# Entry
Amino acid sequence: MVDEQIQEKGILARLLENGIKILLKKECSHIGKLQINIYASSIQIIKGIIEKIHIKSEEINYKDLLFDDIELEAKKVKLNFKIRNKELKFENDPEIKFKISLSESSIKNILLSRNWKWIGNIISKEIFNQDPIENIQIKNGQLLMKATTKEKTINDEEIFDVETENGKIYLRSNSYNKSINIPIENKVYVESLTIKNKLITVLASSSIDF
# Structure
């Protein structure tokens, strides 16, 4: 009986993991290495109550947001999981805690992408007099941005400190004495941000709905 229960739990957990994988792949245009751990008993899975879901992944493209690494954890998740067709639907909007890492290549591709180019345009307007950003580097714990400038009176590059305040992310330019708020969804609260080894790591929390 015990062996049967362990086997049943394993099967249900694997089916649920596959359901989450299918859901994530629908939402993301690309996902690299993906690891999902479900913390719940068989009875809890049948009832649609999951104590904890832990997800780790690499090389994610979510609507042109490129993450080198991402780690998510959600607790007290209520869901409706149809085993036969592996259809998964959240019954609540669980709060998740997550950690994401972005390289300078990812940041550059995000700010120059079609969906997020408008954020780069905000920086161009505030710092480079509308001239477009052409390159971004992480250097000495700061962001170095270079623009294609037409006027010699405008600096063609600027160094930014990246900081968090009241759950938001800001770029601070000491040369121009300006602080630029990087727009993020209101439901996302950024707890900390660090820059190390040419990677920006963000710890944050948010509710999530699919």
About this structure: The mean pLDDT is 85. The helical segments are 2-27, 42-47, 104-111, 117-127. The chain has two domains: 2-92, 105-207.
